[in-house]
Amino acid sequence: MEVDSVALPHLEQQTAATILCCNCGVPIDGTTSAGALCNECLKLSVDISNGIPREAVLLSCSDCDRWLSPPSSWLVAAPESRELLAICLRKLKGLTKVRIIDASFVWTEPHSKRIKVRITVQQEAFQGTIVQQTFEVEYVLANQQCPDCKKSYTHHTWRACVQVRQKVPHKRTFLFLEQLILKHNAHRDTINIKEVHDGIDFFFSARNQAEKFIDFLTSVTPALVKKSQELISHDVHTSVKQYKFSYSAELVPLCKDDLVALPIKLAKSIGDIPPLVLVYRVGTEVNVLDPVSLKTGSISTREYWHSPFTSLAQVKDLVEFIVLEVEPLGPQKGHFVLAEATVSLASDMSTTFYARTHLGGVLHPGDSVLGYNLTGSNYNNDCFEALEASKQYGSTVPDVMLVRKFYARKKKNKSRNWRLKRMAREESEMLARKQDEKKAETDYELFLRDVEEDEDLRSRLNLYKTPKLPKVVEEDMMEVEEETDVSEDEGLQVPMEQLLEDMGDMTIEDEQ
């Protein structure tokens, strides 16, 4: 390895004494104590970098992309960053004996598994004489699993588990929760994520990590958390005990657009709202709306579990109606506009219904709208029976309750200009049935449509641009679109300014 050295004598007041270099005979200042050597001979005879290795090995974990920093810590460092340079310098023994003036990376091939660093050091070789040298160190990259990743591939190594459950027949809430977790990177401490029948299990190597995840969970969703622990070992000599902790987080079994009948006492306590309402948002609280009067109310997690109730009808029970007439009535609350609409069933145009709705700002004659047909409906629900028996609210049950505008789509999924990221998770040990896989695909497609149609929901998530397809694939897709019927409305398009560039740092599933 070539070494570039420069001798830097102190700038002191020189005398007229001059001697000859003992090696080459060049006249030099005799007042310096450099062993009667000139600068050129000094840099050839003195090596201040002696003892500093010119080769070293850098260890990185291929699963989490962290680097081993001596002695045993694993740190995140980007290529050619200051953090990675500091790790490289810590690997070299003998640098503490010299003064580091400069250090920088030398370009190498991206896939060469080599990193080169150019280092400049200084040291006082003789009294009054400082020698500066520049040399290169080559690092060989090697892979080694970090302790956290080793635990993730080993069974029964977790110390805390968070079991998230919701007793509903679909996965829309979990899909929304997954996007919130990805947006805030709340799953970074998990060693394993396992999908089960009614929810998801998150495994952690420490109790405080699970409690931190629980704090995040309760800050974005209404959940009832219960804690349990199991003794796994006990040292009778030192009285040291080890436990496994399990946290059960049960989400409120209510989702957006559900039709619910509130307990009359609860309805009066949240603003004297009519008991028959729609759920228009589920956040830290359950927000409900009365479409007839535009009254809204918020139900906290504590209030719900004090007097729990279930939904009367869900999204799968929505019926398509055709709007015949719409007459706005004037009152407006947020993006809700009160209006009176005349609608008829899409399957039977002979019967018409009159209904007050909160969709006066988006509905026009001829549009399709989804709603609940309450005519002749019989719900086996105690709250609904109490509502019908009530003198105050018994006569206020409408025939039709409109929920949201309906956008006709092609039978085949259209290609979207955006996509969502998905978490890498372990599937259940039991093989999924074909009908379960089809149901999961249907739930995800419905969730994607909700994201397209609901601007408020879209603002709470991270949407990423779909990468451009190769030219050949793009031409084939254009030919297919020309052959298909394009007379139907393809729905909404997400504006490009609301999409983020995908940096490729997580697992992504294309849903097109």
Overall pLDDT score? 81
Quaternary structure: single chain
Figure out the total of helices: 11
Radius of gyration in whole Å, from Cα?
A: 35 Å
Binned strand content: 35-45%
Helical content band: 10-25%
Detailed description of the structure:
The chain has helices at about 40-45, 80-90, 145-150, 170-185, 205-220, 265-270, 300-305, 380-390, 435-455, 455-460, 470-485, and strands at about 5-10, 20, 25-30, 55-60, 65-70, 75, 100-105, 115-125, 130-145, 160-165, 190-195, 200-205, 225-235, 240-250, 260, 275-280, 285-290, 295-300, 310-315, 320-335, 335-345, 350-355, 370-375, 400-405, 420, 465. The chain has about 500 residues and is an alpha+beta fold. It has three domains: about 5-145, no CATH class; about 260-405, no CATH class; about 420-500, no CATH class.
Quick summary of this structure?
With 512 residues, the chain is of the alpha+beta class. It has three domains: 4-143, no CATH class; 259-406, no CATH class; 418-498, no CATH class.
Name a few traits of the molecule.
512 residues, 5-stranded mixed β-sheet, disordered C terminus
List the helices and strands and how they pair.
Elements: E1 4-9, E2 18-20, E3 27-29, H1 39-45, E4 55-60, E5 66-69, E6 73-76, H2 82-90, E7 99-106, E8 114-126, E9 129-143, H3 147-152, E10 160-165, H4 172-184, E11 190-195, E12 199-204, H5 207-220, E13 223-235, E14 240-251, E15 259-261, H6 264-269, E16 276-282, E17 286-290, E18 295-299, H7 301-306, E19 311-313, E20 319-333, E21 336-345, E22 348-357, E23 368-373, H8 382-389, E24 400-406, E25 418-419, H9 434-453, H10 455-459, E26 464-465, H11 471-483
Parallel strand pairs: 4-9, 10-14
Antiparallel strand pairs: 1-9, 2-3, 5-6, 7-8, 8-9, 10-12, 11-12, 13-14, 15-16, 15-19, 16-17, 17-18, 20-21, 20-23, 21-22, 23-24, 25-26
GO biological process, one term: ribosomal large subunit export from nucleus
Protein name: 60S ribosomal export protein NMD3
GO cellular component, one term: cytoplasm
